[in-house]
Design brief:
Number of helices: 13
Number of strands: 6
Distance between the termini: 42 Å
Low-confidence stretches: 1-28
Largest sheet: 4 strands, mixed
Order of helices and strands: EHHHHHHHEEEHHHHHHEE
Shape: globular
Helix content: 40-55%
Radius of gyration: 19 Å
Strand order of the largest sheet: 1-3-4-2
Length: 276
């Protein structure tokens, strides 16, 4: 088992991003996001060995299956003749079978998440008009990444959102802190999706190594934007508050420019731009 990649504390992202395209203002007004239930087909195969479920995974969801096997689980290449056996065998672990069962029980209904995503992406499109909504799906990993994004898709790993007090998360051998577990619940699925998605579109500058303060300020911009899209304060930090103050005092500043350019809002509310 690999340890959690905490949202917005790491700059590493597996990039997999955006096929669902909305072109007109009318389309944006009718935005309706539905999480595709890839996890249900995956669960059927991994718990029963149903060959028809495996076929559906490979035919209907080839990119999701490749990403899960090669980038998330890292158990081999999808074109390996033995990969289906390896995939099935990997999930026969008792712990993983428990996780599959828990995920399917807790997320039998995701209507609330669909509505939250719809509302959040609708607001995000108002703030950033040229943004394109990714194809969003649910999957079950092995306590790896929470959210993966890139190549037109955004994948939600339900195994990372089973609740603050989920027994496996409390085990010392997994090493999750109280702070980490607070984010491993249903309430953080949509904020995490938005955060990872925005970081994939507006990654941290890579032309030089950033200081910790610069990283914190950059994450403050992402988290502040997530708060606006959610229409509530999900992240309440010194850095998000400073971005809020800065945006209020600079009414001509757009969210797109804030995220796109090398703008960092220091705790003093000063504006700093990296020289080119």
């Amino acid at each position: 088992m690999r340890k959690i990649y905490i949202l917005l504390l790491s700059v590493m992202l597996v990039c997999i991003g955006c096929e669902w395209r909305l072109s007109s203002s009318d389309d944006k007004a009718d935005t309706h996001v539905v999480v595709e239930r890839y996890d249900r087909i995956q669960s059927l195969y991994l718990t029963t060995g149903d060959f028809s479920a495996l076929q559906q995974m490979n035919i209907s969801y080839p990119q999701q299956t490749r990403t899960l096997i090669e980038d998330v689980l890292k158990i081999g290449q999808v074109n390996d003749p033995e990969i289906n056996v390896k995939f099935l065998s990997f999930f026969q672990d008792t712990t993983l079978q428990t996780i599959i069962s828990s995920a399917e029980q807790q997320y039998a209904d995701m209507d609330d998440i669909n509505q939250e995503l719809t509302d959040a992406f609708t607001r995000l499109q108002v703030m950033i008009p040229d943004i394109e909504i990714p194809q969003i799906y649910a999957q079950i990993g092995s306590l790896d990444q929470s959210v993966i994004v890139g190549n037109g898709m955004l994948g939600i790993s339900l195994d990372k959102y089973l609740g603050v007090d989920y027994p496996l998360y409390l085990r010392e051998d997994y090493g999750y802190t109280d702070e980490q577990r607070q984010m491993m619940c249903r309430l953080y699925i949509v904020p995490d999706c938005l955060g990872f998605f925005l970081l994939s579109l507006y990654p941290m500058p890579y032309d030089r190594e950033l200081t910790q303060l610069e990283r914190d300020m950059y994450i403050g911009k992402i988290q502040w934007t997530v708060n606006q899209a959610m229409n509530k304060t999900v992240f309440n930090t010194l850095y998000t508050r400073n971005v809020g103050h800065y945006m209020k005092s600079h009414p001509d500043m757009t969210v797109s420019r804030l995220l796109k350019e090398n703008i960092f809002v220091r705790p003093s509310n000063a504006l700093e731009e990296f020289s080119e």
